[in-house]
Every structure is written in C-alpha cells, then in structure tokens.
Amino acid sequence: MGDVLAGFHAVWEFESDSVLIRYERGIRTPKLFQALGERRIPLSALEEVTLAPGRRGTLVLRLVPRAGADPLMEAADGQLKEGSDPYRLVLPAERESQAASCTRELAALLTESGPADRYLVAAPAGPLQFKAYDGKAAFDGTSVQFRWSWTGASTAKWKAGDQSYQVADLSGVEWRSPEALEGFLRLRAPGAAPVPEPDQDPAAVVFGLGYGPVHESLPFAAAVLAAVRARRPVPAVSQCRRDPADIAERIRHLGELHQAGLVTDEEFAGKKAELLAEL
User: Fold this and answer.
1) Residue 127: cis peptide before it, omega within 30 degrees of 0
2) Does 137 lie in the same domain as 56?
3) Fewer CB in a 10 Å sphere around the end CB: N or C, the chain?
4) With 80 as the cut, is the pLDDT of residue 168 above it?
5) Do residues 92 and 58 make contact, with C-beta atoms less than 8 angstroms apart?
C-alpha cells in the first residue's frame, strides 16, 4: 500500500503484508506506547479494521487483532484503558478522506479470521525488569526471578526465599492491572493445585501505588507468555474450506477497489489468487 497516517501519539505505515506502528515520545504520549517504541503487525494477525468518529472532532482508526495473535493483548486480557490501546490511532477529522481510503485498502487485504494457533506479533524484547510492591521481578529470556523486598513482602514469601522459575516449567502468566485494586503478576505452573492469595504466593508479585506500572509489568508479562508458548508444540490445525459465496464477495469487493485505483494490479492479482486458493 505504501500509505502513511500520522495521528496523535503514533505514525502508522501501511505495507503490503503488515502495518508498522511507530509510537512518539513525549509527556502526553501514554507511557505504554513509549515503552513499546515500534511494533510491526502482520496482516495475518488482524481480524478487521474499523474507522469511527472520535471525541472533539477526531477520528479513530482501530485494528482488531485475532485472538491469540499478540502476546501483549493476551496478557492484557481486556484490561487496558481506551487511551492505552496500542491498536488505536486517533486522527484529526480533516484526514477523514485519507483514513477512509487506507481503511478500505487494508480491509481488502485481510483474509484471516478466528483464533491464531501461535503468536504472530513479536513480544517485547528482553531482558526486562520492574519493581513491584513486595519485590523485584526480572526476566532474562529463559527464567524469571523474584527478589523480595524487606518492607513489602509477606512472611510467607520471606520464608520461601527469593524465587527463580524456568520458562520450561511454566504454563502461563496471569496479569492484573496495577490500575485496579489488588493488581499482581502471577506465574502459572502445570497442575490444578490450590492457588494462594497473590501476597502469599511465592510465584506472584503484587502491585501497589507506583509499583508495577502498566508500561513495565505488561510488556514483562507478554515477554514471558511468548517464551512459554514458544516451548510448547504447535497443535495441528485442520484446514477448513471457505464458503464459496464469501470468497466471491471478497473478490467482487477487491475488484471494485482495483477499478477505483485503490489497489494496484499486482496487489489485486496476488490477493485474488490467495482467495481462490481457499476454495
């Protein structure tokens, strides 16, 4: 596509197989965006794209990722506030024409849907660390370490001592936003053993006011999740044939975009071949 949209806090570059998002740095930019810096979102990781009116004369362009395609969004589990959604671009209303054109072109290129069987968006790069209320957490790519604070850790954690968990021994991560009451990050291990409260669990660190902020603890959780998933065998996914009527409708829509000059000859031929291959 080659289009570029500059909005508040980010610049989006639309390419033939991905969207490159570069987040700005500044006092008004959400800290999570600054921590992420730059993200490349493959089109295969996207379910749809929407464009809607925003507040105070703005437009909101939003990408909808497929379930299970992005470790960051899986770790967030719907807890991010609207202003911190990394898939949301706020634009001035005067760019409606360009935004609408980009939305149509991008929508025509999206062919995947449903849950992804693996992460398609890269996880935040390590090593990562942050300070929680009751200790410090560090991740080096292969193991997670918790070092307890003498001012905040419970007696149960002090008795258990500092902890080190190998990624190979984990089944997942649970993150509860520090912006809510009783936020925490907990490492999950295989098995159905009773789980103690986070402040008593040596496999968890708890957050507090000023401890474990979203822009530090969420990328941390996402990186651990991606490392855990990478060690699991990828399940075989049965390939289902798409509805011929749906394919025909997509090709028809693609043809309209091609005739309108919004899709190049090469893009039209390539996407048409991909859609026909799904029959």
Assistant:
1) yes
2) no
3) C
4) yes
5) yes
**3-state SS assignment for residue 16:** coil
Residues 259 and 205 in one domain: no
Type of residue found at 215: H
The pLDDT-based confidence of 120 (bands split at 50, 70, 90) is very high
The token pair at 38 is 């730059």
Query: What is the Rg, in whole angstroms, of the alpha carbon atoms belonging to the chain?
Result: 22
Residue among 199, 203, 145 at smallest CA distance from 174: 203
What's the confidence (pLDDT) of residue 248? 75
Q: Is residue 100 assigned to a domain?
A: yes
Q: How far apart are CA 101 and CA 103, in angstroms?
A: 5
Three-state SS for 43? helix
**Do residues 222 and 193 share a domain?**
yes
The helix (run of H) or strand (run of E) holding residue 23 is strand 18-23
Six token digits for residue 89: 């671009």
Structural domain contains residue 117: no
Which one, of 118, 121, 113, lies nearest residue 48 by Cα?
Answer: 113
Q: What is the CATH number of the domain that holds 74?
A: 2.30.29
Range of the domain at 220: 128-230
- Overall domain count for the chain: 3
Contact yes or no for 183/213 (Cβ under 8 A): no
